[in-house]
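for the recovery benchmark. tokens below, seq after
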């Protein structure tokens, strides 16, 4: 290159700089993920009675094993509360098959709606049946180890903690779309969440598991505060932080069973996630493009007309990303993903990022909503209530 650079080369330089920053991000996030998974699991000093709330809707693949894992806990006193809105819900058959000699089990069948967030409406119907002061809200698609409740309880040994939450590792069904979904969780969400906490972002609260003391929740306004928001996990965390209390990560992630029946379902799911995050923290979501160095380097190569420096950065970004994924797979005890699938995941992540950044409409359980800046759901014009 001689003389003044053209517009294409200028854009390429900016994108190369962003891609190199993304390489540094990948290295840092991978190091922190390995450190997080290697830290010791300390036992809980106290083991108070726990109520676990499980809102259910349909019988997804693997549900029987998921529910059984939550029942098979090495914990002295806990209650499981299951809730469905439809008496014909097939999830009830899975609950009925659970043994009743390991924990107290309550089943709530109630169709009364409380707001636009149907999951929270289910939780509100279940709430009168919750017996204990330590409450765990856990999704139906997670699978946990026998020390799950001990890890949750250990977080409350610190009196300054208001919520204990869990990261999660995606365990996919054996199809390409589910595997792509799991890759996004394991090599996108999880390392990003670990790095965010390491640099001081302590607002991450994740819906797979949210444990909270009853008095803390009720002092913040209770579950009704969540009835019309999509990001109920983030809002719950915010409600607790406003009381001067902290959000604590459990020592180990739980497993989340990933089932994506097709590309349309996968895209709708991930765009909903992206737009939810963007609604409550748009600057951070827009800045998260730096987590995609391969996509940035590829755009740099295209903008510069396959300019030699941009091709070199693209090669470096690809190598760094592959190293990061392989290192994260070892830390998380995951099988190695094929390079072709990883490349497809990179393309998909860029598409999701662009689409999620450009709108506020989401499709959830067959209805179309607009996500407001505070995370509140508003039914989109023309959608069926």
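predicted aa per position
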């Amino acid at each position: 290159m001689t003389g003044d650079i053209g517009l294409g080369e200028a854009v390429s330089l900016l994108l190369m700089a962003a891609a190199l920053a993304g390489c540094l991000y990948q290295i840092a996030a991978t190091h922190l993920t390995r450190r997080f998974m290697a830290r010791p699991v300390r036992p809980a000093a106290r083991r108070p009675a726990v109520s676990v709330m499980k809102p259910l809707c349909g019988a997804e693949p693997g549900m029987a094993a998921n529910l059984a894992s939550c029942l098979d806990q090495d914990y002295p006193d806990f209650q499981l509360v299951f809730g469905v809105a439809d008496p014909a819900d097939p999830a009830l058959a899975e609950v009925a098959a659970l043994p009743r000699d390991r924990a107290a089990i309550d089943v709530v069948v109630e169709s009364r709606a409380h707001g636009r967030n149907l999951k929270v409406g289910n939780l509100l119907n279940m709430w009168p049946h919750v017996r204990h002061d330590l409450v765990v809200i856990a999704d139906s698609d997670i699978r946990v180890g026998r020390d799950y409740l001990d890890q949750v309880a250990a977080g409350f040994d610190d009196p300054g903690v208001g919520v204990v939450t869990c990261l999660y590792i995606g365990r996919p069904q054996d199809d390409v779309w589910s595997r792509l979904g799991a890759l996004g969780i394991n090599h996108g969400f999880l390392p990003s969440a670990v790095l965010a906490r390491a640099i001081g972002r302590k607002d991450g609260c994740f819906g797979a598991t949210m444990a909270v003391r009853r008095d803390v929740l009720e002092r913040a306004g209770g579950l009704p505060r969540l009835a019309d928001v999509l990001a109920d996990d983030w809002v719950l965390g915010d409600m607790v932080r406003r009381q001067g209390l902290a959000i604590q990560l459990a020592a180990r992630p739980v497993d989340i069973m990933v089932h994506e029946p097709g590309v349309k379902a996968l895209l709708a799911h991930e765009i909903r996630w992206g737009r939810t995050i963007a609604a409550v923290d748009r600057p951070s979501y827009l800045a998260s493009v730096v987590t995609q160095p391969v996509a940035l380097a590829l755009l740099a190569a295209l903008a510069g007309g396959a300019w030699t420096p941009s091709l070199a950065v693209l090669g470096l970004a690809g190598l760094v990303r592959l190293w990061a994924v392989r290192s994260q797979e070892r830390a998380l005890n995951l099988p190695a993903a094929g390079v072709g699938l990883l490349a497809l995941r990179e393309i998909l992540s860029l598409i999701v990022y662009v689409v999620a950044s450009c709108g506020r409409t989401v499709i959830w359980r067959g209805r179309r909503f607009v996500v407001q800046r505070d995370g509140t759901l508003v039914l989109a014009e023309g959608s069926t209530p």
